[in-house]
Amino acid sequence: MKGERRHRGVLGVMLVLAGGAVALGVDKPTSAPKTCVTAECHADYAKRAFVHGPVSLGDCKSCHEEADAAAHTYRPARQGNDLCEYCHLDQTAKKNVHEPLRKGPCTDCHDPHSGDSKALIHEKTVAQLCAKCHETGKDMRFLHGPVAVGECTICHTSHSSDREKLLVDEPANLCFSCHVVTKDELSQFEFVHEPAKNDCIGCHNPHGAANAQMLKADAPELCYPCHEDIKKVAETSRHRHVAVTEKDGCLHCHTPHASTVQFVLKDAPMSLCVSCHDKPVTTEEGKPVAAFTEQVQGKKSLHGPVAQKDCAGCHATHGSEHFRLLAKDYPQLFYAPFSPDKYALCFSCHPESLVLTERTSELTDFRNGDLNLHYVHVNKQRGRTCRSCHATHASDLPKHIRDSVPYGVWNLPIQFLKSETGGGCRPGCHQPFTYDRQSPATYPTRR
Ligand code: HEC
Ligand code: HEC
Ligand code: HEC
Ligand code: HEC
Ligand code: HEC
Ligand code: HEC
Ligand code: HEC
Ligand code: HEC
Ligand code: HEC
Ligand code: HEC
Ligand code: HEC
Ligand code: HEC
Ligand code: HEC
Questions:
Q1: Whose CA is nearest to atom 40 of ligand 4?
Q2: Is 123 exposed, middle or buried (0-12, 13-18, 19+ CB in 10 A)?
Q3: What value does the mean pLDDT of the chain take?
């Protein structure tokens, strides 16, 4: 702005401002005055803290043209904004002109002679001037720093601009000029949230807001308009995750700007889960959810994906049609009639043939000779589900066999023993059984 400003120069002659010059009373002017600012006449113009260039030079004529010398009346030297733009070129030249300048005159905001405030504005501060016509920041619980201290013109020009909303720079550049930390994060972190690249005001109100951090809305509502698909899953799934849907939900796990972790996550996925699931919680329906950490801490073997910290291999974090936020179908109870789609979760990584094939010498180690005991237990009308023998997250026994399995109120022991060529159990379900892949055990005839 400053660089573009040009003056046509002050036309007036250098005249003494006050004191000794000849004073001519307003009521009886007899000859052309040498100056209009004297001890008696218009003296106050020179006494204010800020005096306009031409006025300080006594050059009244640059704005006032004598109409009638006898009556001491004057008319404006030029009409409208031209009065001022004659010297201050191009104040209204840019694409978007501030409404008061379009309508004129400049004196809506400036005193043409002198004033007590910088830039000869009528009010004490720029903010007070703006506040005469704009209620910016009114009733906002959280005000932006520069707005709170009235620095409107850090971001806006008062006159005209080629940018929308009279901004002095592109919005993101404006923000970066002060928020260097945010700028650094965006340039240095590998994963950047698309709108944070330039659309700061997509989420923040630049002046302030009813919500902390000047957010237009709190998460998750803030995020939903752009993430309709997540909204649908989060809000309408049969099983919802409070961590997602509660106030600030999304921000438990995601950063809004940028991150060193994929999907702009705040931390490695498993660390995020464990930050809440290190203790028991309850679901919306009041059902207990056991602490995840207790199931894995100190355990001898972790299930493959758990060892790889891949919770998403089995859980749909944002919401799911399946109990326990499982990504795919998996029977919830001890018994279930068999069909492969009911085990879609396990079969997304393990082959279906594990359970479909009755006789095999290779598909599974859980066999007696070539009789597939997975087939025997699982593949029938009253099939035992995987959970009756396997723990899902971790176990102390080989092959994730569990110590015991909840059966009604009873924790039914399994007492699994593994041998070189087979194994055995003494569960509460039936008499002790062994299986052996090389020298098959003989079982009593089944009903
Ligand atoms: C930069 C242009 C400009 C200059 C220079 C200027 N005036 Fe003015 N003056 C105005 C305008 C515009 C008005 C009308 C005020 C308004 O509308 O608020 C005005 C109004 C006045 C008035 C009417 C009463 C008032 O204060 O509103 C007097 C008297 C006056 N000027 C005297 C002078 C004298 C004396 C000088 C020289 C020392 C001078 N002016 C220099 C622009 C100027
Ligand atoms: C004859 C030329 C001339 C005219 C006409 C003129 N100005 Fe100025 N104006 C100046 C000069 C010279 C300065 C001082 C330059 C500087 O400080 O850079 C100045 C400075 C200003 C300033 C800055 C004061 C500050 O404290 O920073 C404002 C505001 C201003 N003029 C407003 C107006 C308005 C409003 C009008 C019309 C009513 C007007 N000017 C008409 C010559 C003019
Ligand atoms: C809506 C109020 C408003 C109107 C109308 C207005 N100005 Fe200003 N003007 C300001 C404010 C506020 C500043 C001080 C900006 C700052 O401090 O950052 C200013 C600053 C200035 C300056 C000082 C130099 C600069 O650009 O910072 C000049 C000269 C000026 N105005 C001339 C004019 C002229 C000429 C007009 C009419 C064409 C006009 N103004 C109309 C509010 C206004
Ligand atoms: C004399 C009244 C008045 C003053 C004083 C005033 N404005 Fe305005 N301003 C308006 C009007 C009228 C509009 C157009 C209607 C609207 O958007 O509210 C406007 C529009 C705006 C806009 C939106 C422009 C756009 O393109 O949509 C911004 C930004 C703005 N003003 C900032 C300021 C700032 C900053 C100040 C103080 C330096 C200020 N205004 C002082 C009357 C004023
Ligand atoms: C940190 C920069 C910044 C500051 C400081 C700032 N604004 Fe704004 N202002 C903006 C941005 C950016 C927009 C555009 C908002 C949009 O398009 O949604 C805007 C828009 C506006 C508008 C247009 C209407 C609206 O609310 O969208 C007005 C009027 C306005 N500001 C006035 C002011 C006033 C008055 C002040 C001082 C009290 C001020 N602004 C301080 C950045 C700022
Ligand atoms: C002139 C410097 C300046 C500019 C430009 C600026 N800010 Fe700020 N911003 C501040 C200050 C100062 C604070 C208050 C800092 C604090 O409270 O820790 C702040 C606070 C914030 C906060 C709240 C931080 C908190 O901890 O409460 C957000 C969000 C914010 N600014 C966003 C923006 C956005 C978006 C833009 C661009 C439209 C922007 N800022 C432009 C100086 C600026
Ligand atoms: C997708 C929405 C969104 C976008 C886009 C966005 N922010 Fe934010 N921003 C937020 C949220 C949400 C917070 C609060 C974070 C929290 O509480 O953990 C925040 C916090 C901030 C803070 C406070 C300090 C901090 O990092 O927590 C600043 C400053 C900030 N944002 C600046 C910006 C700037 C500058 C831009 C544009 C480059 C921007 N934001 C873009 C949503 C957004
Ligand atoms: C203004 C629109 C907008 C808002 C608001 C918004 N986003 Fe986004 N988000 C996008 C766009 C565009 C992408 C990139 C395209 C895509 O993956 O859909 C994206 C991508 C993402 C991604 C995937 C990033 C990746 O690396 O693949 C996550 C996670 C995300 N957003 C979370 C959020 C969260 C959390 C919020 C609320 C705090 C939010 N978004 C608000 C527009 C938005
Ligand atoms: C409990 C942690 C957590 C919460 C809370 C959370 N997310 Fe995610 N989000 C993730 C993880 C982990 C991923 C990585 C991929 C996956 O598991 O689906 C992700 C991926 C995403 C993606 C990119 C991949 C996709 O599925 O499109 C978007 C967009 C996203 N989240 C948006 C959101 C929004 C919006 C919210 C709030 C409504 C939210 N997230 C809440 C953990 C979370
Ligand atoms: C901010 C805390 C928080 C975080 C982070 C979190 N959860 Fe949760 N989670 C809860 C709460 C509280 C519940 C119980 C209320 C409910 O059902 O949503 C829960 C419930 C669950 C349930 C049981 C749901 C049901 O309906 O039985 C599973 C499974 C789950 N979370 C997995 C995860 C996974 C996987 C992650 C990491 C991607 C994770 N959680 C991150 C708080 C959290
Ligand atoms: C191999 C699939 C699988 C993986 C991988 C997995 N889970 Fe689970 N998770 C399940 C199943 C199945 C259940 C339901 C257990 C039940 O009802 O017996 C469950 C239940 C849960 C529960 C509810 C409490 C409970 O034990 O019933 C939480 C919390 C949980 N998982 C967190 C996690 C976290 C955190 C991770 C990543 C470290 C993870 N899960 C990885 C399959 C998995
Ligand atoms: C996301 C992929 C994935 C899903 C889903 C999955 N698993 Fe696994 N599972 C693995 C991996 C990887 C291993 C480790 C394989 C290895 O070490 O040879 C493993 C190993 C096992 C083992 C032990 C095998 C051994 O040789 O030690 C059992 C038992 C098991 N899974 C049962 C299940 C059950 C039951 C389900 C369904 C609730 C399931 N898995 C779902 C990936 C998965
Ligand atoms: C009646 C108990 C029982 C049930 C029910 C059961 N398993 Fe197993 N499973 C075992 C035993 C015992 C082993 C270990 C065999 C060995 O290594 O001697 C095993 C081994 C495994 C292995 C390791 C590879 C292999 O076959 O040797 C996988 C994978 C596996 N089971 C998956 C499943 C899945 C998926 C289900 C549900 C569809 C399931 N199991 C149901 C007892 C069971």
A1: 130
A2: middle
A3: 87
**Ligand sitting nearest the alpha carbon of 125:** 3
Label residue 164 exposed, middle or buried (CB < 10 Å: 0-12, 13-18, 19+): exposed
Residue 243 Cα distances to 41, 117, 230, 262, 396, angstroms: 75, 53, 13, 19, 30
**Which long-range contacts (C-beta less than 8 Å, at least 24 apart) are formed by 224-233?**
226/195, 230/318, 233/316, 233/318, 233/319, 233/320
How far away, in angstroms, is 218 Cα from ligand 4 center? 28
**pLDDT, tens digit (0-9, with 9 covering 90-100), for 179-196:** 999 999 999 999 999 999
Distance CA 188, CA 259 (A): 9
Among 97, 49, 41, 46, which residue's Cα sits nearest to residue 72?
41
Residue among 48, 60, 65 to mutate when testing ligand 1 (max atoms within 8 A of CB): 60
Give the least confident one: 57-61, 163-167, 178-182, 220-224: 57-61
Is the distance from the beta carbon of residue 301 to the nearest atom of ligand 7 less than 6 Å? no
Q: Pick the residue whose CA is nearest to atom 38 on ligand 10.
A: 273
Is the distance from the beta carbon of residue 244 to the nearest atom of ligand 9 less than 6 Å? yes
| Residue 437: CB atoms within 10 Å | 19
List the residue whose alpha carbon is closest to atom 40 of ligand 5: 152
Contact 356 CB / ligand 10 (< 6 Å)? no
Q: pLDDT value at position 426? A: 83
At which residue do the structure tokens 């806006």 appear?
156
pLDDT digits (tens, 9 = 90+) for 283-336: 878 889 999 999 999 999 999 999 999 999 999 999 999 999 999 999 998 899
Which residue's CA lies nearest to atom 39 of ligand 6?
Answer: 175
Task: Kindly report the protein residue whose alpha carbon is nearest to atom 6 of ligand 11.
Answer: 311
Task: Read off the pLDDT band of 446 (50, 70, 90).
Answer: low
